[in-house]
Amino acid sequence: MAKLAPSILSCDFSQFREQLLAAWEGGAEIIHVDVMDGHFVPNLTFGPPIVEAVRKVLPEAFIDVHLMMDNPCRFIRDFAQAGADLISFHVEAVADFDAALREIAKMGKKGGLALCPGTPLSVLEHVLEKVSLVLLLTVNPGFGGQRFIPGMEEKIRALRRTIQERGLKVDVEIDGGVKEENIEFLASCGASIIVAGSLVFTASDIRETVRRLTRAIRVY
Ligand code: DX5
Ligand code: ZN
């Protein structure tokens, strides 16, 4: 059953509370927080205080923090203490996946690995059974509102196949370029969590948009 994870990257922060509540009331149980350091990716977004704010507005939400940063281990504790439920970091930014995953587990949180579009699935070979989630970036990291990179659907299908063949319970999260015209197709390819930033937070009626999208993908 695929779930929607609105990304606050595209929020109007002058209406942060209202927009979060609208997404929640529309049925979004997961809130995706795109943390960027201006170094691993060319954009700079926000830190642990924004997770605290999401937790304050939505005490029941599942907060999914996506660290697009160099040396993410520096901040695992801070994001965990701020209220994250799951923390994913980029395989391209960490040499020792096990150490970073242990750090997340020590804080009682779920751990995820994130892959840029150009990173092959083979990087997951020896670690797939240790994670709750794999995030496949389907745009080049840094900005919302980009176009889905054609061909990434094959990567989603291949990852879903591997998880099934190995009998694992790992979520496949896709992130970037999700639009009205491709969201159901992407759910059908095997994505179990679908991040949508601009599609949700630039909509004229966020609540209704989330309700419609949630209903459309939960059948997959
Ligand atoms: C890329 C960002 C975006 C964002 C989603 O670094 O991580 O993928 O979450 O943006 P939209 O849904 O607007 O493509
Ligand atoms: Zn993300």
Name the features.
220 residues; TIM Barrel; alpha/beta; eight-stranded parallel beta sheet; 33% helix; globular; binds D-xylitol-5-phosphate; binds zinc ion
What's the rounded overall pLDDT mean?
98
Helix content: 25-40%
> How much of the sequence is in beta strands?
15-25%
CATH fold title:
TIM Barrel
Strand order of the largest sheet: 1-8-7-6-5-4-3-2
| Structural class label | alpha/beta
Ligand inventory:
D-xylitol-5-phosphate, zinc ion
Overall radius of gyration: 16 Å
Name the CATH superfamily assignment: Aldolase class I
**If helices are DSSP runs of H or I spanning 4 or more residues, what is the number of helices?**
8
**CATH domain class name:** Alpha Beta
| Stretches with pLDDT under 50, minimum 5 residues | none
Shape: globular
Termini, distance in Å?
5 Å
Q: What's the total count of β strands?
A: 8
Number of domains: 1
Give, in order, the helices and strands: EHEHEHEHEEHEHEHH
Architecture per CATH nomenclature, i.e. the level-2 architecture:
Alpha-Beta Barrel
Describe the largest sheet: 8 strands, parallel
Protein model, in words:
By secondary structure, this protein is an alpha/beta fold. The protein has a single domain (3-217), classed as TIM Barrel (Alpha-Beta Barrel), CATH 3.20.20.70. 33% of the residues lie in helices and 20% in strands. The protein is built from eight helices and eight strands; from the N terminus they run βαβαβαβαββαβαβαα. It has helices at 16-25, 48-57, 76-82, 97-106, 152-165, 183-188, 198-201, 206-217; strands at 3-6, 30-36, 62-68, 86-90, 110-115, 133-137, 171-175, 193-196. The protein has an eight-stranded parallel sheet with strand order 1-8-7-6-5-4-3-2. β2, α2 and β3 (62-68) form a beta-alpha-beta unit. α1 runs parallel beside α8 and α2 (48-57) runs parallel beside α3. It is globular and about 45 Å long. The structure holds D-xylitol-5-phosphate and zinc ion.
